[in-house]
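#lab-general

N.A. 3:47 PM
ok so I finally got the sequence cleaned up, no stray characters, all 127 residues accounted for. can someone with queue access submit it? mine expired

B.Y. 3:52 PM
send it over

N.A. 3:53 PM
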Amino acid sequence: MLLLLGSNAVGHGRLSLSPYGSTFLLARLIGDGPAARTIAERCPQSGWYLCAWAGRLPADSDVFLWTLDSPVNRDAEGRPRFLGGVLLAEEARIIVAETLRREPWPWPGRRSAMARRSSSRPGWETR
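B.Y. 4:20 PM
back already:
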């Protein structure tokens, strides 16, 4: 773990286990709704890049992260964004923090629903 922290500090300038992990957490919070609500309420005054996507964010975290026309990979005008997840990481960290302040854990009964949804995807097996 220390090696990972050190290599990220040298390679990315950040002492972190996952310097761009906030993008993945943001994708989940958008898919589940809380971050989409934060973006809708705080835009356009916040000036976030994702304000251009407010009201039309994908409801699926995988679509948000991986499709070619997602907010991560294309800007609002449709131009490709190389390393979009990296470009979005700092804003994602801010939006995640704001979302968790606004809605600390808004989905108490959602854990089992999220687990069922994840386990029902092709290639996932439940035992």
